[in-house]
Amino acid sequence: MIKTVIIEDEKPAARKLERLISLFPDLELVATLNSVEDGLEWFQNNQHPDLIFSDIVLGDGLSFDIFEKSGPNFCKQ
After folding, report:
1. What is the Cβ-side half-sphere exposure of residue 39, based on CA atoms within 13 angstroms?
2. DSSP per residue over 10-65, as a string?
3. Beta-carbon neighbour count of residue 1 at 10 Å?
4. Distance in angstroms (rounded) separating the CA atoms of residues 13 and 30
5. Dist. CA 33–CA 39, nearest whole Å
6. Per residue in 6-44, pLDDT tens?
7. pTM greater than 0.85
8. Which of the residues 2, 12, 48, 66 could staple to 39 if both were Cys, CB 3.0 to 4.6 A apart?
């Protein structure tokens, strides 16, 4: 299974991505996050996913802030 996370603050867009992901049996949606704050908390407390679908501009910052603030080893897990 490919563990997948959505980072999207617009609910209709997040729901559409969730529906699309559900069409692929090899993808397992493990979280839908809607802010930088939620993303930081989730990535600090969970195993990193194999695949991320992310909006760039979120209500409280850029999705890239999640990866930068999660530390230099974010992609090395």
Report:
1. 28
2. -HHHHHHHHHHHHT-TTEEEEEEE-SHHHHHHHHHHSPPPSEEEE-SEETTEEHHH
3. 9
4. 17
5. 6
6. 999 999 999 999 999 999 999 999 999 999 999 999 999
7. yes
8. 66
